[in-house]
Batch of 3 targets.
Target 1
Amino acid sequence: MTIVEQRGVHVRGLRRVFGERAVLDGVDLDIAPGEFVALLGASGSGKSTLLRALAGLDGEGSGEIDVPGKHAVVYQEHRLLPWSRVWDNVVLGLRGRDLRKRAEAALAEVGLATHADAWPLTLSGGESQRVALARALVRTPDLLLLDEPFGALDALTRLNAQALVADLWAEHRPAVLLVTHDVEEALLLADRALLLADGRIAREYTVDLPRPRSMDDPRFIALRRDLLDGLGVRTVATAKEAL
Ligand SMILES: Nc1ncnc2c1ncn2[C@@H]1O[C@H](COP(=O)(O)OP(=O)(O)OP(=O)(O)O)[C@@H](O)[C@H]1O
Ligand SMILES: [Mg+2]
């Protein structure tokens, strides 16, 4: 029997400097195998820089980074090649047999089985992001890196896409790092939410709520307020309290 060791993410003292500025300045981060972690922080705080370092797309940082070899990334833009059919995009760069079948299976998982032969330009924004998810899934990653994958979607499509990610995660259980600006998205999906500020993980929130989660749960509402406070966002309610 072959025992495959499932590794999580282990980062210590990660530092990345652009010019004079240390955008990442001693990031320590652990993600257990199968754990879902959300990463929040102000625009420009270094979230994408951290994600790129984990994806192995930026070799310039210093520090210790240990991530599973099998990882996949989904970005805010779907990054599909317009001249390749949907199924070809899903298995882009892969080799081996039965690629068409593997693409179809992944597309079925995101509800796009009938779109295998479509051209990317004929898809809606939500469908394109689902293809991007299928392209990640087909690689059976142990670590899924998501950089604001639903940031450009309208509110309803976004809710559906979040539910899809929750289902896919429950089914396949990769470790996930989800970069998002959306506090509710973080609380709906993640086991932990981390706040990146001043180049480090400044705060950590454990989201100890049963799934599927409800935004009406008083504990959800309390966590939402904590997170918004951490982000320095004044909500209408807190603004009124301050009057
Ligand atoms: N290749 C680069 N060269 C120079 N500066 C860079 C480079 N990449 C990122 N930066 C700078 O590093 C900082 C962090 O960028 P990053 O893209 O990681 O932020 P972010 O937290 O993902 O922001 P957003 O929420 O807007 O996506 C920014 O000030 C950005 O301008
Ligand atoms: Mg970013």
Target 2
Amino acid sequence: MKINKLNNAISIVHNLMEERIRPGNIVLDGTVGNGNDIMYMSKLIGKTGKAYGFDIQNTAIENTRKLLSTLDYKNFILIKDGHEFVDKYVEEPLDFIVYNLGYLPRGDKTIKTKAHTTKISIEKSLNLLKRDGMICIVAYPGHEGGMEEQLVIQDLLSRLNQKNFNVLELKFINQKNSPPILYIIQKINSNGVA
Ligand SMILES: C[S@@+](CC[C@H](N)C(=O)[O-])C[C@H]1O[C@@H](n2cnc3c(N)ncnc32)[C@H](O)[C@@H]1O
């Protein structure tokens, strides 16, 4: 993996996207927010790919739609619904999935991802993932409710069968103020279900 700066979970995720995502891939952003992560993926999959994006807030969907409208092709489907209902909208196998949890930067901090629904969504995403596909999850234990969410994710992922999934937990052990924790999951067996 080619990483320029190791100081930030999102830049590691973007480097992984560059490494893994190819034109024509099908990808999903479980929390589009201001659209930066789905934009990164939309450029990599090009006009032959497809990017699904979920968010529960109108503001997030509209901010993302505005950002993606600067692309000269439309390879995305934005869904204003909870990512816990992902299987209602997505049936095809996915190459790459990202969740940047918590609240919308510069938005309403009371509207944020929750342990219970995040767990449901990740379980469904694990089943939608293609063999060799990856999921990146950025969790924020420093936010209110964020520690509970991170522990639920850790518990879920630590129980995955190692014959089916590789699972990494990356944390910045010398950073102050509860830095984010990054989970990277790779499906290694096409029978791998959660
Ligand atoms: C940290 S932001 C995402 C940042 C975004 N990926 C970006 O590049 O700007 C988290 C987002 O999760 C959304 N969210 C909260 N609960 C959700 C749920 N159940 N399903 C989908 N999105 C949710 C919030 O509305 C918020 O916009």
Target 3
Amino acid sequence: MLKLDNVSKLFNPGSPDEKIALLGIDLELKAGDFVTIIGSNGAGKSTLMNVISGVMKPDLGEARIEGNSISHLSEFQRARWIGRVFQDPMAGTAPHMTIEENLAMAYKRGQTRGLAFGVNAARRNVFREQLSRLGIGLENRLRAKVGLLSGGERQALSLLMATFTQPQILLLDEHTAALDPARADLITKLTESIVREMKLTTLMVTHNMEQAIRLGNRLIMMDKGSIILDIDETRKQDLTVERLLGEFEAISGQKLADDRMMLG
Ligand SMILES: Nc1ncnc2c1ncn2[C@@H]1O[C@H](COP(=O)(O)OP(=O)(O)OP(=O)(O)O)[C@@H](O)[C@H]1O
Ligand SMILES: [Mg+2]
């Protein structure tokens, strides 16, 4: 379904500030895979998501969806197939627009025609129904400005917006990291149920080791732009946080350094 071949990305090449963000990444996801990604700060996790979603072009290599190269497509063009939720609750939604206007925008994502984000009665009912699935009462606040919502509420809305049009791929970049534990837990549960119900192919970066092990059917560890560990479902089942950190140290010769790391 998603295939990356030899994808590399270097920032500030040739300068003292040169950074290898991705180095020859080969990655193939099957439809319905739910892959968790962990790694030190600067390992290249967000860059990987940026390259897949079209925020930036790789220097080398190619990304394909269902065998078709997506390299020539802009971020906007890919948005129809790729849903994304960021770490920052402010990033995924438009604060000055209402909940229903944001949803209407998500509904139109990636379409060039008809940029009026119209909300009619039928559409409003669909929105209400979708929002009620989140279980936090947003269905009664369709005309509230999104800027007034709490971080957790905004992330729940972002998640709904990112998955509204059944994307081929869902990218989650530490999307619970900015939330307090209770809200983070809520968003994690929502993520699990949406991914399961919609059978979404998902890549989720997390700093929470326990979560990386428990969620999904595959775990990838990145370091210095490379994938250094790729653990399948069977091996993942008897993995522990200690064993995972041990593996990282054995391979990289360093301790995993993530300033947001949570062990469980
Ligand atoms: N736009 C950019 N310009 C220059 N360097 C960048 C840019 N984006 C990322 N980098 C560098 O590329 C490397 C990989 O960064 P990236 O954000 O992908 O890491 P990450 O694994 O997401 O880290 P974190 O856990 O801190 O979010 C880092 O060295 C970073 O400083
Ligand atoms: Mg990052």
